[in-house]
């Protein structure tokens, strides 16, 4: 299982360092503004019944994690009731199964990686509850790993230099492979069924391009595809049909992702709501997006995004190449070709946050949503050519960095220290560097790093502690939950614990 933090060097190599050549211009933004599979009347979600209500199959035929028993098709026909299935393996240990949807059902044959091999996700069951109670808590995660769109080795969106594990599943286990592991350290989520979608589509989990332009990868011209949205839909369908993600049960679900996975979580929330409408309506579906809150209104000629131009222009080219399938209600409210609010701005966190948290009466999903985003995330700043903070910075460079922070503040609605008029659950340091345990400085504060457990104001205000309070406070809350009061944490300093013993909040 790959870690988001371990992916950081790869991320930087792919999209955030060096000047390079700007990617080739695509003809126009027309393709990105055209109807996607969601809004064209052919939704990615399979709506037809997948089994005949009342019929039964052997549990083991559905998944390797089931050792025995029979599963009956639900009355809805959307999958099987696996509550009487017997789990394989040692019930006192965690059990993980590798799933390749394209090999499970012909409906998901298009759930692929960039190089064409099968998309993979993993399902991990916790130890069986001692009292025999059913498992109803789920954590569903999307992995991070940067992005690419162009046939070049440019660090600004070129595909040629991506690691093999970010474009293929060749190094991941085979379908139905099982492994056991020790129980997790007890916390709010250690008793949950944990799902990890492995990222190998390079499209922020939004693409549907089965016939993308070929890419020269490792010196060889290759067929290429971007199918992140298809992969998410396949993963959710398989979980519903075979593993017990059953909306008729009292599910409690944390939908989350970091970096590219955070973009994916925001951009696929509507798919989860379609699969779990009761959980969403009853406040049992929560969203946590990390390191992916990026406004598209950055427009500095001296610091163009990916060497292209404004954030809106750059993401117009990206979404056109990926043929991104974006949130239908957001896309429907925008006009193709609009220079200010085109449909492809719906990939942006600031736009989607309002939709995800808005009440249903305003067309939103009314979901509690926690966002982590460092406002001086150097990975994203480097995508626009903003230099690292150093003693060599010119006054002009320092001023540009300050304008970036101001743009982030505006996008988050930050109106003062530890307050926000817009975002209700927000963890947003403004930190260009932190210190590792060995004393070295880390200038790429992309993940939470020290803020996970040791922030300036003490462990009680760490991201981990805030996530716990978010879960326990908002779970099962009533209508208006998306905009209900929460916690806002902003740290306006460089957090170096040995130096700033008194904290710097």
The tally of helices reads 14
The unreliable regions are 1-43
Question: Based on DSSP secondary structure assignment, what is the total number of beta strands?
Answer: 21
Strand order of the largest sheet: 9-6-7-10-8-13-14-15-18-21
What is the first-to-last residue Cα distance?
35 Å
Largest sheet: 10 strands, mixed
Count of individual domains: 1
Share of β-strand residues = 15-25%
Summarize the entry for a quick read.
The chain has 505 residues and is of the alpha/beta class. The chain has helices at residues 8-15, 30-33, 59-62, 101-104, 228-242, 260-267, 269-275, 277-281, 311-322, 328-332, 349-357, 378-383, 395-412, 463-474, and strands at residues 56-58, 66-68, 70-73, 80-81, 86-87, 94-99, 121-125, 137-142, 178-181, 193-197, 209-217, 220-226, 252-258, 285-290, 369-372, 414-416, 419-420, 425-427, 434-435, 441-442, 488-489.
Structure description:
The chain has a ten-stranded mixed β-sheet with strand order 9-6-7-10-8-13-14-15-18-21, with helices on both faces. Strands 1-3-4 form a three-stranded antiparallel β-sheet. A two-stranded antiparallel ribbon has the order 2-5. The protein is globular, with a radius of gyration of 22 Å. Mean pLDDT is 89; it is low at 1-43. The protein has one domain (5-79, 92-387). With 505 residues, the chain is an alpha/beta fold. It has helices at 8-15, 30-33, 59-62, 101-104, 228-242, 260-267, 269-275, 277-281, 311-322, 328-332, 349-357, 378-383, 395-412, 463-474; strands at residues 56-58, 66-68, 70-73, 80-81, 86-87, 94-99, 121-125, 137-142, 178-181, 193-197, 209-217, 220-226, 252-258, 285-290, 369-372, 414-416, 419-420, 425-427, 434-435, 441-442, 488-489.
């Amino acid at each position: 299982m790959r870690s988001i933090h371990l992916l950081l060097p790869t991320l930087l190599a792919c999209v955030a360092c060096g000047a390079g050549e700007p990617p080739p211009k695509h003809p126009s933004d027309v393709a990105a503004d055209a109807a996607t599979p969601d809004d064209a009347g052919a939704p990615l979600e399979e709506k037809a019944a997948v089994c005949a209500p009342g019929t039964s199959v052997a549990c083991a035929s559905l998944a390797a994690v089931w050792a025995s028993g029979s599963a009956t098709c639900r009355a809805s026909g959307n999958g099987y009731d696996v509550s009487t299935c017997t789990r394989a393996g040692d019930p006192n240990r965690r059990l993980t199964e590798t799933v390749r949807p394209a090999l499970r059902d012909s409906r998901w044959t298009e759930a692929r990686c960039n190089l064409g091999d099968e998309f993979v996700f993993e399902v991990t069951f916790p130890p069986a509850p001692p009292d025999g109670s059913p498992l109803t808590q789920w954590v569903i995660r999307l992995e991070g790993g940067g992005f690419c769109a162009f046939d070049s080795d440019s660090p600004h969106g070129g595909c040629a230099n991506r690691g093999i594990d970010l474009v293929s599943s060749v190094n991941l286990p085979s379908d139905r492979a099982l492994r056991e592991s020790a129980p997790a350290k007890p916390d709010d989520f250690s008793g949950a069924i944990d799902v990890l979608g492995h990222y190998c589509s390079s499209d922020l989990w939004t693409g549907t391009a089965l016939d993308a332009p070929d890419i020269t990868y490792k010196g060889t011209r290759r067929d290429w595809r971007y199918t992140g949205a298809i992969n998410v839909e396949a993963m959710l369908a398989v979980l519903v049909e075979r593993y017990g993600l059953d909306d008729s049960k009292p599910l409690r679900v944390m939908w989350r992702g970091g970096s590219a996975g955070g973009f994916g979580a925001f951009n696929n929330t509507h798919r989860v709501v379609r699969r779990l409408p009761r959980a969403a309506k009853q406040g049992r579906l929560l969203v946590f997006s990390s390191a992916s809150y990026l406004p598209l209104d950055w427009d500095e000629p001296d610091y163009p995004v990916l060497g292209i131009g404004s954030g809106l222009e750059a993401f117009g080219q990206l979404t056109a190449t990926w043929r991104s399938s974006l949130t239908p209600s957001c896309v429907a409210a925008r006009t193709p070709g609009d220079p200010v609010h085109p449909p492809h701005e719906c990939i942006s966190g600031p736009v989607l946050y309002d939709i995800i948290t808005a009440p249903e009466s305003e067309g939103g999903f009314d979901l509690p949503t926690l966002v982590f985003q460092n406002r001086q995330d150097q990975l994203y700043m480097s995508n626009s050519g903003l230099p690292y903070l150093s003693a060599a910075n010119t006054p002009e460079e320092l001023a540009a960095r300050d304008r970036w922070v101001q743009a982030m503040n505006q996008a988050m609605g930050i109106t003062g220290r530890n307050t926000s008029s817009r975002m209700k659950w927000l963890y947003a340091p403004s930190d260009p560097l932190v210190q590792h345990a060995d004393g070295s400085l880390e200038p790429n504060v992309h993940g939470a790093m020290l803020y996970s457990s040791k922030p300036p104001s003490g462990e009680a205000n760490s991201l981990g502690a805030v996530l716990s309070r978010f879960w326990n406070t908002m779970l099962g809350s009533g209508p208006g939950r998306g905009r209900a009061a929460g916690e806002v944490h902003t740290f306006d300093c460089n957090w170096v614990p040995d130096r700033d013993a008194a904290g710097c909040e």
